[in-house]
Write a structure and sequence with these properties.
Structural class: alpha+beta
Radius of gyration: 32 Å
Oligomer: single chain
Strand content: 15-25%
Number of helices: 14
Shape: elongated
Largest sheet: 14 strands, antiparallel
Helix content: 25-40%
């Protein structure tokens, strides 16, 4: 099944915007516009293939065919408290990269692959088995020069390694250098010098490629393919595949395998990103590998291939779940960034770690200083694909991340933190909700009189009375007097405030590393879907109740009454479909928010209950002859 982050964001934003429009129009009792059908994630079955990688145009070269490789193959394992890396002397590439911990401000959190349990923890391997098993292998730190023969030599020959043993252990505060050297006896000299640090995810890569003493131009360092958590069984538009990302020019570019490429008959595609590259890399929602060149250069290229895998059975939508028709295949993509770098020994910084906002913000200034330019490296996090959306969503998402982090530390559970945050936010909306209720109540009381005035205006219009006639003006003034205070903007303000927050909360919950694999009640992972779908149905039912008990403008005509009934049921059904595979943390926020709204509305309805006049007892005692007997009141008959 193909997956698209672009379509996923469009689908969520379209659903939210449609919901806001429908509820707003419903509140004002105007016919709502029919919502466009969001694009569904396509399910494709493409033949699995392991073709040779597309070569860059070859240029004439004096380099002869490589001689027999006499250097022994060595696997160098680098162990630190945060990660474990295996470097292969064949090509001087990384064949394994396992993250062990996330470290933020002295706090260390263990990291495991998706689907891990306390009884069965799985290592978080960032390099794809598919990429490792291809021939030739597609692994990080390969080189591309534009010369096919030279590329084969650089990527397939065994380098000499200066490490004494096959295991390099880094204790806290330590850093060590491992150097790989390759010569061919015909003037080629290649050197990769890795510097690893025990206390951080940033490594230095000094790259030098010379032929006949001259630096080889147009060299590109390959990052990827598809760095991320490869234990995920199936991807959705909420749990995306790895994508290429880069800061080129003055904007962030993202390219995912599903929607960015046109694939040829060999299931391969490529694209170029014009502009000077500040950094570029590959990653999924929570983990990434990125290269920060010493100097900016143009020529970033992104290549992708697609292949099909067998998966554990899963239900991609509510319809397949209802029909009990599971899917067991998924089309996936290997995406690689070809980053232009200087091959003169300059140091390229390599970040391979978490996309935790708090960690990235803590190292951003240091990276800017080391690079000598502003990198905006925190934007490696996908706040939004589109710049205009990111402009609004990012400033809202960051305070939510801080609030959730605070409540998580306070309560010790991310699910409880979401509930506390939701309760406090909806409590702030209570005064506006109260004003909303009073406004709609007044509108409902004026509805019969308003209809009467509208009928009078229609009758006068049929008789040809002009709008500037005194009678028409008087009726219009009467309309304005009835509308005053009935449906002010405050009537819809609580609803309008919730939707930007919903988009920002969706962004926050999908990028918050603490939400990943955080359990709550029956939910094993707040960043994933509810495995039992209790929250999805609970959310839909709570939405029906909240809409039924929330006051709206009076429905005067049968058509308006029918519209209200349709919206009460169609909105929850539509949102149930859209949010079927949504993160359970997002559904927990929305579900609990509906419960709080329902409770608030019950309080408002009780306090706004009209006061009934006191009844008078029936007087049965003998009265003076000059006094008349009165029943049920104090009026004289």
């Amino acid at each position: 099944m193909d997956n698209s982050d672009n379509q996923g964001q469009f689908r969520l934003f379209a659903a939210v915007i449609l919901s806001m429009l429908i509820l707003g129009v419903w509140s004002y009792l105007n016919p709502p516009a029919a919502p466009p059908e969001p694009a569904q994630t396509e399910t494709a079955a493409n033949q699995q293939a392991t073709p040779q990688p597309t070569e860059m145009p070859a240029t004439p070269a004096a380099t002869p065919a490589p001689p027999v490789d006499e250097a022994p193959n060595r696997q160098i394992v680098v162990k630190s408290p945060l990660y474990q890396v295996t470097l292969d002397s064949r090509g001087a590439v990384a064949s394994s990269w396992i993250l062990l911990k996330n470290k933020v401000n002295g706090r260390e959190t263990p990291l495991f692959a998706d689907g891990s349990t306390a009884e069965n923890p799985k290592p978080l391997e960032l390099i794809s088995n598919e990429a490792r098993n291809r021939s030739p292998r597609e692994l990080p730190f390969r080189l591309a020069t534009g010369d096919a023969a030279l590329d084969t030599l650089l990527n397939e020959r065994n380098y000499q390694v200066n490490a004494e043993g096959d295991t390099v252990t880094l204790n806290a505060g330590e850093e060590k250098t491992i150097e790989f050297t390759l010569t061919d006896g015909a003037g080629l000299e290649a050197r990769k010098r890795f510097l690893f640090r025990a206390d951080g995810y940033i490594a230095d890569l000094g790259l030098e490629v010379k032929r006949s003493g001259q630096t080889v131009p147009n060299t590109k360092l390959l990052i990827g393919p598809s760095i991320g958590d490869h234990a995920i069984n199936n991807h959705t538009f909420y749990r995306i595949e790895s994508e290429a990302m880069a800061y080129v020019g003055d904007d962030i570019h993202r390219h995912q395998g599903y929607y960015s490429f046109d694939f040829d008959a060999q299931n391969r595609g490529s694209l170029t990103v014009p502009g000077a590259v500040s950094w570029a890399g590959v990653g999924d929602a929570y983990f990434a590998m990125a290269a920060i060149p010493a100097t900016q250069a143009e020529g970033l290229e992104v290549r992708a291939s697609k292949y099909e895998v067998e998966t554990q059975p899963f239900y991609p939508s509510i319809f397949s779940w209802a029909l009990r028709s599971p899917t067991t295949k998924e089309t996936r993509h290997l995406v690689t960034a070809y980053v232009p770098v200087a091959a003169d020994g300059s140091v390229t910084k390599i970040y391979t770690g978490t996309k935790d906002y708090f960690h990235l913000s803590s190292i951003s200034d240091g990276l800017d200083e080391a690079a000598g330019r502003e990198l905006e490296f925190v934007n490696i996090i996908n706040f939004a694909t589109y710049r205009i959306v990111r402009f609004f969503v990012k400033p809202l998402s960051i305070p939510i991340l801080y609030a959730l982090d605070f409540f998580n530390r306070l309560t010790g559970n991310y699910g409880v933190a979401i509930i506390v945050f939701t309760f406090l936010f909806y409590s702030l909306l209570f005064p506006l909700r109260w004003s909303q209720s009073k406004s709609f109540k007044k509108a409902a009381g004026n509805a019969p009189k308003m209809k009467e005035v509208q009928d009078k205006i229609k009758d006068l219009q049929k008789k040809g009375v002009p709008m500037d006639d005194p009678r028409m003006r008087e009726l219009q003034m009467e309309q304005l007097r009835m509308m005053k205070g009935a449906v002010p903007i405050g009537g819809c303000l609580p609803m309008l405030l919730q939707f930007p927050l919903l988009i920002a909360f969706y962004t926050a919950i999908t990028i918050a590393l603490d939400a990943r694999q955080a359990s709550f009640a029956w939910l094993p992972d707040l960043s994933g879907a509810d495995p039992w779908h209790i929250l999805e149905f609970g959310f839909a039912i709570s939405m029906v109740l909240a809409m039924k008990f929330t006051p709206t403008g009076a429905a005067v005509t049968p058509e308006q009454q029918m519209q209200q009934k349709m919206m009460t049921w169609l909105m929850p059904i539509m949102m149930l479909w859209v949010m079927w595979t949504a993160p359970s943390g997002l559904l927990l926020y929305w579900f609990f928010g509906n419960i709080v709204s329902f409770g608030q509305q019950m309080v408002i309805n009780y306090m706004n209950k009209p006061t009934e006049p006191e009844t008078t007892e029936v007087v049965n005692e003998p009265l003076p002859k000059n006094i008349k007997k009165v029943k049920g009141g104090n009026k004289e008959k």
